[in-house]
Design a protein that fits this description.
mainly alpha
Length: 212
């Protein structure tokens, strides 16, 4: 996990922080739905089916858009030069986030949140390696499970210290969520703009630091 270059590791932490931020803003703005945490939306789907059909429909739509974002981004990455995949993936997702944020400025519908979910699905592939997503950047359940097993290894005396990057990744996402919550209180959905700018900066940085 995160056994790549230091640059890739820092990129993963930055993406996770932005994902937590966007998810917090999306959660508060959409009426308690998630744009990157699909386990939460799956629970909302189940509860909605039991008693609130409109909530179930929204949750199902967000899940479908998240999966579609992963699928479309994966197809696009097959046409990208290997060294430029992280930067181009981030640029694609930054463009989607820009459109979604602009739409939220003129529309109170759920549609822009669907586009946010699409973008957040795609951004998980920014650091895809050899066709495999080794860890999620916008959700933490798997990361926390790995953290627990690595801590068990360390406590059992095995020479492993790779639990720390996992903890830092979780802290990045949770810290981003805190900032997102604070920003939403001050700026409402305009709080997304710093996240949009952040993804564009990461895209530019990645493209400039990798050979074509």
């Amino acid at each position: 996990m995160l056994q790549h270059s230091r640059t890739a590791r820092m990129l993963a932490f930055a993406i996770a922080a932005i994902a937590g931020y966007v998810d917090a803003v999306g959660f508060l703005g959409s009426g308690a739905f998630f744009v990157s945490f699909m386990s939460g939306n799956t629970t909302r789907l189940g509860v909605g089916i039991a008693g609130d059909g409109s909530a179930a429909a929204i949750a199902a739509g967000l899940i479908a858009c998240f999966v579609a974002g992963v699928t479309v981004t994966s197809l696009l990455r097959r046409r990208m030069a290997e060294a430029r995949k992280p930067g181009l993936t981030l640029a694609f997702c930054a463009g989607l986030l820009t459109v979604a944020t602009l739409a939220l400025g003129v529309s109170a519908s759920i549609a822009p949140f669907m586009l946010l979910a699409f973008a957040m699905g795609g951004i998980n592939l920014a650091l895809e390696n050899e066709g495999e997503v080794r860890f999620g950047l916008t959700y933490m359940t798997g990361t926390l499970i790995k953290l627990g097993t690595r801590l068990a290894d360390a406590l059992a005396g095995e020479p492993r210290a790779d639990w720390l990057p996992l903890l830092l990744l979780w802290l990045a996402l949770s810290g981003g969520a805190i900032l997102g919550g604070v920003a939403y209180e001050a700026l409402a959905m305009n709080a997304l703009w710093p996240a949009v700018a952040g993804v564009w900066v990461l895209a530019g940085f990645s493209l400039l630091t990798r050979k074509a």
